[in-house]
Automatic annotation (TrEMBL):
It comes from Anoxybacteroides voinovskiense. GO terms for biological process: bacterial-type flagellum organization; protein transport. This is Flagellar assembly protein FliH. The lineage of its organism: Bacteria, Bacillati, Bacillota, Bacilli, Bacillales. Residues 114-241 form the Flagellar assembly protein FliH/Type III secretion system HrpE domain. InterPro entries: Flagellar_FliH/T3SS_HrpE, FliH_Bacilli, T3SS_Stator/FliH.
Amino acid sequence: MSNVIKAPFAKTDHHNKKMIEIKQYFLQQPDVSPLEQSEQENAQMLIDEAKRQAQLIQQEAEHYYHSVKQQILQEQEQWQSEKQQLARAAQQEGYDAGFIQGKEEALRQYEQLIHEAKRIIETANEQFYEQIDAANETILLIGLKVAERIVGEKLTENHEHFLSLVKQAIKEVREQSEVKIYVHPRYYDWLAQQKEELKAMFSEPVDLFLYPDEQLQETGCIIETPFGRIDASVDTQLQQIKEQLLERLEEATS
């Protein structure tokens, strides 16, 4: 639940007041229409596609890792073969000093090759995990975008859903004696007809004022009292959820 910020109740532009965000809640529907079912299936398809892309990235990284590993093994075998040939040549020709020098040079080159191979593998692993992390964030953002669209469509289809949103916010200030509610003009006339129903939610008699505000998003709702204000807008709540989920995702991958 949100906290109410104490502040003087002056006649100032409510857009400049400090915001208090409340927790998001979901609108439960007993039945799912074919259109809603289709939207949910489309959302799931987007998420499944993002997961599939992440799996492809992982498979490509693993294939690259095994390819580099195989190359190292081949270089090792080649070195062993060359070493044996050098040993035989040195023994046959009696160039012991030259053999030792050649062996040391070959060993140095081999160590450089191993070092370079390890560096390539480490870089590939880093890129792999970076791509996986990016894929996880993409899946999350896709899901939130779909949720935002579905919630917006539901509020447009049924004004009762918007009324539920306003009521949820009023529960935070029902002990106040003076309350102002700002909504987008799209919902103002309809919400004004529900004024008595809203006033009935308060514990004591209340001076309840409704104002249209074209600067708000269509699903926006701001509630002011002498002690502060509450932002119950859908966009604000979804943004808050997005920030919290991204923060948790970052903690999980760090």
